[in-house]
């Protein structure tokens, strides 16, 4: 549930910030007549994202066991790629996203009303599709299917409240700090999703070593305890993982954390003109 909440909060806040910037630009430019077009683009993006999530669930429900394991493995790997790209993209674009969106919306206004709706749609649909894919991947293996849905719904609602507060200048938060901490947590979540994907590939018979365990701490970490469910749901920490699962987790988490936490390179000084 917490992993789904974090995904909904992070992705939802990015989408909410995008919409807030677009709306604020139109209001300050005295172009309120174009607001319905923005909301139309946003609504279409949300509908497409929900439909994409339903398609993933429907596809998985109509496959054989081996096909379902392979499908879930591929979606887990794709979700890991998307969340990694999103984390690093947001790290570099957070400072310039407002100016870029205003410039694009200004050009769209010159083209026409349909361009405004398309621009709003494209700005939100990426976040929505990523949210659907990440939610589907993170919810695999959940003991109670309702909890991930509740978690992501609460995360999205929280992001909307925060986004509205920022738009109304009632809330001041350090977005750089926010995206740094949520980025760190999402790297661990993505590592767990990748680990789950490797497990699915092993169950589908594509990768070997399903019964070759890295360790077995079932005597210490009770699989039926609440804290075991919390660790498994958040970071996919299981008491008896395979060697290949742990190798994939380590090969992803360690270098990605290093690159994410590495200080940005200082800009090069301009060379003197001869």
From TrEMBL:
It holds the Pfam family FTR1. It is a multi-pass membrane protein. The chain crosses the membrane at residues 6-25, 37-58, 70-88, 108-125, 145-166, 178-198, 243-261. It is found in: Membrane. Keywords: Membrane, Transmembrane, Transmembrane helix. InterPro entries: FTR1/Fip1/EfeU. The keyword Lipid biosynthesis does not apply. PANTHER family: IRON TRANSPORTER FTH1 (PTHR31632), PLASMA MEMBRANE IRON PERMEASE (PTHR31632:SF2). Belongs to the oxidase-dependent Fe transporter (OFeT) (TC 9.A.10.1) family. This is Iron uptake transporter permease EfeU. It comes from Nonomuraea roseola.
């Amino acid at each position: 549930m917490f992993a789904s909440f974090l995904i909904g909060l992070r992705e939802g806040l990015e989408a909410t910030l995008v919409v807030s910037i677009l709306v604020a630009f139109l209001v300050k430019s005295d172009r309120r007549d174009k607001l319905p077009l923005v909301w139309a683009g946003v609504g279409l993006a949300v509908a497409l994202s929900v439909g994409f999530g339903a398609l993933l669930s429907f596809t998985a429900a109509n496959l054989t066991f081996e096909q379902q394991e392979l499908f879930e493995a591929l979606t887990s790997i794709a979700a890991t790629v998307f969340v990694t790209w999103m984390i690093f993209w947001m790290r570099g674009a957070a400072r310039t996203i407002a100016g870029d969106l205003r410039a694009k919306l200004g050009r769209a206004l010159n083209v026409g009303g349909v361009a405004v709706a398309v621009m709003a749609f494209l700005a939100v649909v990426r976040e929505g599709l990523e949210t659907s894919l990440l939610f589907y991947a993170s919810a695999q293996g959940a003991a109670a299917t309702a909890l991930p849905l509740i978690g992501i719904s609460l995360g999205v609602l929280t992001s909307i409240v925060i986004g509205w507060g920022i738009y109304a200048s009632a809330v001041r938060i350090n977005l750089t700090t926010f995206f740094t901490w949520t980025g760190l947590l999402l790297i661990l979540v993505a590592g767990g999703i990748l680990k789950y994907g490797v497990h699915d590939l092993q169950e589908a018979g594509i990768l070997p070593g399903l019964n070759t365990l890295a360790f077995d701490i079932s005597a210490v970490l009770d699989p039926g305890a609440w804290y075991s469910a919390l660790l498994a749901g958040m970071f996919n920490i299981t008491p008896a993982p395979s060697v290949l699962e742990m190798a994939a987790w380590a090969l992803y988490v360690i270098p990605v954390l290093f690159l994410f936490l590495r200080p940005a390179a200082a800009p090069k000084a301009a060379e003197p003109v001869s």
